[in-house]
Specification:
Radius of gyration: 20 Å
Number of strands: 11
Number of domains: 1
Mean pLDDT: 96
Shape: globular
CATH topology: TIM Barrel
CATH superfamily: Aldolase class I
CATH architecture: Alpha-Beta Barrel
Structural class: alpha/beta
Largest sheet: 8 strands, parallel
Oligomer: single chain
Low-confidence stretches: none
CATH class: Alpha Beta
Number of helices: 16
Distance between the termini: 26 Å
Strand order of the largest sheet: 1-9-8-6-5-4-3-2
Strand content: 5-15%
Helix content: 25-40%
C-alpha cells in the first residue's frame, strides 16, 4: 500500500482519505464498515431506519472485527407535504403488484412504530464507540451538540455552496460535497414542493465549496477509482466518499439481483426522482421507477417508502430487477465484485500512480 494522506486523515483518525458512504437500508454491514476502516479508510454505518439497539449491536461487531475509526450517518429530515393519497398511489401500482403476485389493493398496513430520531441514533452510536458523525439531507445543527460533547467531528453532506456555508455556520467540522452524479438521496437541505432540486456536477461543485469554507472538504459523486480520487484532490478536496463502488464489495449486503444489475450498468441508466421515497434520489431506471416517476406523486417522506415495502421485498426475493428500487450513481458500471480492503488499496494506489504521472508530465 502506497502512503496517501491529507489533513483530513488526522481529523478523522484514518490513514487513507477514503470514506465509505453511509448507505441506509442495509448495504453497510458491520463486516463492510470494519473492512474499510481496517484498510485505513473510514467505514460508515447508514443509521437512518435502524433501531438504536441494532445500531449499537452493529457498531460493537465492527469493533470486534478490529475497526477503531467508525462513522455513523444520519439523515436530517422532517415530514413533507404529500402530492397524492394512498389510494391513488396504490391504483397506479396495480400492474406492478400483479406482476409480483401481490394483492391489489394492498392490505391495510399495521401502524409503523416511530422511527428512532437522528438525535437518538447519534447518541446511541457515540455511546457504542462511533468516532465520526456524518449527516445528509439537512442542517447538522440539531445533532452538533451531541457530537461535540464526545469530541466526534461532524461532516455534513451538501449539494450547493449555500448549504455548505449553512452547515459550516452550524458547526460542521468538514463538508462532503455531493455532485449530481452520486447515487442515493440528494443532499439538498430545503427541497421545493415539486421535488426539483439543482443538480451540480462534482467537477463544478467541489472547487466552489473548497473556496467557500474553511474546513476540509470531501468529494462525493461519480468517484469510482483512483483516477476519480486524484481528480478531486486536484480540485482541492482532501478525500472522497464512495457508496456505489462498495455496493459490490464482498462484505456488502446488496441483494444478488442488485449486484447483477449494477455490473456494467450504462452511465445513462439512472434518474433522479422523489417518487420512490418522497425525497429526490438517484435510482437505476426500471419499470417501477419509470411508473412512479410518471405517476401521481408521493404520499410523503416515510409513508412513501412504507407503501413500497412489500414490492421491494418481493422483487428482491424473486430476483425481479424491473421492480426493485435500486439506488446507484452514474459510475455504477465501473464497479466489480471485490473485497472491500482490496477496493481501498486499489483506489489509493491508483491515485498515487496518477498523481505521479501527472507530476512527471509537468516537469
Amino acid at each position: 500500500m502506497t502512503r496517501l494522506q491529507t489533513p483530513l486523515c488526522a481529523l478523522l483518525g484514518i490513514r487513507i482519505p477514503i470514506l465509505l458512504a453511509g448507505m441506509a437500508a442495509g448495504p453497510c454491514t458491520p463486516e463492510l464498515v470494519a473492512a474499510v476502516s481496517c484498510a485505513g479508510g473510514l467505514g460508515v454505518f447508514g443509521a437512518t431506519g435502524m433501531t438504536t439497539t441494532a445500531l449499537e449491536r452493529d457498531i460493537e461487531r465492527a469493533r470486534e472485527l478490529g475497526a477503531t475509526a467508525i462513522g455513523v450517518n444520519v439523515q436530517i429530515t422532517h415530514p413533507n407535504a404529500p402530492r397524492t393519497d394512498p389510494a391513488t398511489l396504490a391504483n397506479a401500482l396495480v400492474d406492478v403488484r400483479r406482476a409480483l403476485d401481490l394483492p391489489s389493493p394492498p392490505p391495510a398496513a399495521a401502524p409503523h412504530p416511530p422511527a428512532a430520531s437522528a438525535r437518538e441514533l447519534i447518541d446511541a452510536a457515540l455511546a457504542a464507540g462511533a468516532t465520526v458523525v456524518t449527516t445528509g439531507l439537512g442542517d447538522p445543527a440539531e445533532i452538533r451538540d451531541l457530537a461535540a460533547a464526545r469530541g466526534a467531528p461532524v461532516l455534513a453532506m451538501v449539494a450547493s455552496v449555500a448549504d455548505a456555508r449553512r452547515a459550516r455556520a452550524s458547526g460542521a467540522d468538514g463538508i462532503i460535497a455531493q455532485g449530481a452524479e452520486a447515487g442515493g438521496h440528494r443532499a439538498t437541505f430545503d427541497v421545493p414542493a415539486d421535488g426539483r432540486v439543482p443538480l451540480v456536477g462534482t467537477l463544478a461543485l467541489v472547487p466552489r465549496v473548497v473556496d467557500a469554507v474553511d474546513v476540509p472538504v470531501v468529494a462525493s459523486g461519480g468517484i469510482m477509482d483512483g483516477r476519480g480520487l486524484a481528480a478531486v484532490l486536484a480540485l482541492g478536496a482532501q478525500g472522497a466518499s464512495l457508496g456505489t463502488r462498495f455496493l459490490l464489495a464482498t462484505e456488502s449486503a446488496a441483494a444478488p439481483i442488485y449486484r447483477a444489475t449494477l455490473a456494467g450498468l450504462p452511465e445513462t441508466a439512472t434518474v433522479v426522482t422523489d417518487a420512490v421515497t418522497g425525497r429526490p434520489a438517484r435510482w437505476v431506471r426500471n419499470a417501477l421507477i419509470d411508473r412512479l416517476d410518471a405517476g401521481p406523486g408521493h404520499v410523503g417522506w416515510g409513508p412513501q417508502r412504507h407503501a413500497l415495502d412489500d414490492i421491494r421485498t418481493a422483487a428482491a426475493v424473486r430476483g425481479e430487477p424491473e421492480y426493485l428500487p435500486m439506488l446507484a450513481g452514474q459510475g455504477a458500471g465501473m464497479a466489480r465484485e471485490q473485497a472491500a480492503a482490496a477496493i481501498v488499496d486499489e483506489i489509493a494506489d491508483e491515485a498515487v500512480a496518477v498523481m505521479t504521472r501527472l507530476g512527471d508530465l509537468a516537469r
